[in-house]
Amino acid sequence: MTLCGNDEGDQNVPTILAERRSYVAGRWVTGETPFAVENPADESVVIELPATPIAEIGRAVTEARRSFDSGVWAQATPAERARVLRIFLDRLEQDRDALVATMVAEAGQPLAFAERSQFLSGIALARNTIELYLTMPEERTNPVPVDELTRGRVALSIRRYEPVGVVTAITPYNAAFIMALQKIVPALLTGNSVILRPSPLTPISSLIFGAAAEAAGLPPGVFSVVVEAGSAGAELLTSHPAVDMVSFTGSTAVGAVIAAQAAPTIKRVALELGGKSAQIYLPDAVSKAGAGAAAVVGGMAGQACVAATRMLVPQGAKSQVIEQVSKVYAALRVGAPTDPATALGPVISAAQRERCERIIAQAVEAGAILAQGGGRPTELERGYYVQPTVLDVPDNANPAAREEIFGPVLSVIGYRDVDDAIAIANDSRYGLSGQVYGADPAAATAVARRLRTGAVNVNTALFSAYAPSGGYKHSGLGRERGPDGIRAFQEVKHLVIGEFR
């Protein structure tokens, strides 16, 4: 894959991926209608990217169906699929520097985050997913009581795991590369044919998956990457009768639309949606609040569905915590993502910055006190920057405590006792993640067990191919990563075998 700079002649500008074509069913396709991909750090146009023609998106579906039904990939052995996908990952690693530069340019992510949390973590996640998959049986015996087997003259009762079929993978802008790997690797490992459609805001980095598929020798039709400025292609991919499953990460509002589009053809849906996670500090752990606050906004400027943007602290320690957290936020370096010293880059767009500003204003109008930040950095004339913001929130009814802001905004809420803290944390339509901090791990774990959320971090965090992620309530359906995330792309067939008499 060739590379190019953002500005011809400027040797200090990092090179980004130069691929502009879509990869459809084993063929490279050049679109006709370009759309601009904007750099949120300076509001410049990174590139004009030709959109995949809708007819080609339709061909991606029909060829995915053909490839799956032919069994050319689905009937390969697990070891063979793993071998091919290791080559796929080797190809991605060849363009490490350009991929990182591309993620910085199209998403405004600080350099260290793009390299460590997206590229390196993504490759490690994918390789470990392969190893995990190879330990999981394709068939296993059902634990049917012997008397039932005898009465039915049954020799074997087997649970068999088979691929779902054609899978649409729709990824978000905030972590396009790693989220793509989180979907397409388990989907391909289990024998499905896959069509990847990245967010129109950050599509460039996803085009490299076509080169990886070509280098690995994936059979034509098994994998496609399509890009677009709008949603027509996504609507086709979520409603087409030849598609068996849609895996989507994004907002709850869009997830509900996708579920409705998939419903008439009874597609399987895997949805990782919004969150309004709480971090609870028990009385003996309030000194840790500063570090927890920094984690909310670091890297992605608060644009993470799992970000614990509600900080729950004992009412008596609230003013102390707000002072502590405000000092941490005031010291965070906000600026150009290409500067290694930057801790906080921009949000993705002007519309997202306006949403942050609107909800902050609504929160203050409803009684919150602005303790730190709340506006745009005056020293940055261009770019969609929002100051890291601390809100002293009176209660959990405040708009800042209810809405997923998707920006660097933290709400600090006081609680009376542990039962009150748990009630506040659970008082949300979301349930994606949570955190509990306490000097006594047993006491903190007891709190964690009472939270209605898909994951809870107690005094630490873990992102692993071996551990699942997913939400309760409006935060989604199904799980990604771990054995559950792999099985999500498989159907379960019961085989009962008896003697012929």
Automatic annotation (TrEMBL):
InterPro entries: Ald_DH/histidinol_DH (IPR016161), Ald_DH_C (IPR016163), Ald_DH_CS_GLU (IPR029510), Ald_DH_N (IPR016162), Aldehyde_DH_dom (IPR015590). Gene3D superfamilies: Aldehyde Dehydrogenase, Chain A, domain 1, Aldehyde Dehydrogenase, Chain A, domain 2. Pfam families: Aldedh. The keyword Oxidoreductase applies. Keywords: Oxidoreductase. Residues 28-494 form the Aldehyde dehydrogenase domain. The active site is at residue 272. Belongs to the aldehyde dehydrogenase family. This is Aldehyde dehydrogenase family protein.
